[in-house]
Predict the structure.
Amino acid sequence: MNKSEIEKLFLQAQECNKKELFSKSLELLEKIILIDPEFPDIYTEFGNAYFGLNRFEEAVESYKLSCRINPNSIEEYIRLGIAYHKLHDHEKAIEAYRAAIKCNSAAPAPYYNLARLYDELGRFTEAIDAYKQTIVLDPAMPDAHYYLGIVYRKQQKYGEAIKTLKKAFTLNPDDAIVQNAIAHIYMEQGNYQKAIETLREAIKIKPDYASAYFNLGNAYNTVGNMQEAILSYQSAIHYKPDYADAYNNLGTVYDECGKLKEALAAYEKAVYYDPNNPQQYDNIGLIYGKQGKYKHAIKAHKHALEIDPHCFLSRYNLGCTYSDCGMHKEAISEYMIALKINPEDSDSWFNLGYSYYQLGEYEEAIMAYQHTLSLTPDEAEIYGNLGFCYFHSKRFDDAITAFIRVAEIDANYPDSEMVYTLALSYHAANNPTAAKEQYNILLEIDKKRARNLASIITRK
């Protein structure tokens, strides 16, 4: 085979790589290397073919050979860096990009690739420096401005982020993604009206931009414009029919509007398109719970736990569902598991206390409520429930102290049952004057219960 024929084979191999016919390219390159192992650029094309086939280790070896043959080629080192990146050998990738910079410190590409890698690794200070150097070398590169803005956003440097992203948009005014990113920042700042305006601009640029409609729905939902939120999520789904998150959020809005049937249908669509997300099943379970369909609710929450047995929220929701249908032993079991996952969750401790109370296990309930108070002190409802536990445990002085604390925290807490039980506690503690005072309060808010109380505290 003469030189002309070899060059023809090489051009065919290059064309195969461009057309993503990587296996065919390798066959042609193998023929060439048997005849001329030093054929120019052959190892680059080997690397490209291996890379295209996801055979990254072989791609690395090919690119390394190419770098030895062309030690001053920044393109070869960049290719090597990208291949190392694919292998998650980040330090070697950084070395390759820095080698490219040594070859030509005036080229923006290696700085940009280095910045993207630092960004991915969360090394934001180094990423910012590399992005800035890219921009110095190529001020008109919109992607460098865009990703620099995104790093600033991650650091919550919102002013710099918006300024940088607006520069990216100036360089590429047809890029709706930039406007979407700016809107994200406005939402994080709590400026939802500005976010809505910016997302509308993004949609004008790209009318089928599902992500922008999704974020628009989130913004409208946050400001309480449920109808616009629904329309926005529906538009997101129209342009991206498998958009599970949009179905999920649409279900949430329907739920908030009391449209449980529509919410359930939306959540079921979310499950269909994202069957491995426990949140979707939890949401279905919550709707069934609100409909009083507890068996279906329990099944949905259990399905969520089959996907992720360590999901705190799924455990908590299952416990709440058991409690709602009176299955307090099962509720306690789930709350205990949930608290192993998140020992500082006050709601779980509170609900645990409630289930113990319902089972008449007052000492356990007291311990749970006391733990709740250690996490959220000065909550009137917790002291109230604690007072009932003390009363049923015949710890009347402790019950009185708890009920008095309720009144100190919340003067507008004229709960007739609490006043009734406080009066009984005073009566049991041989304080008839205080019991009579509570009777007079009860007489104003619940005459029937007051008559019952009178028959007890006046009994000889």
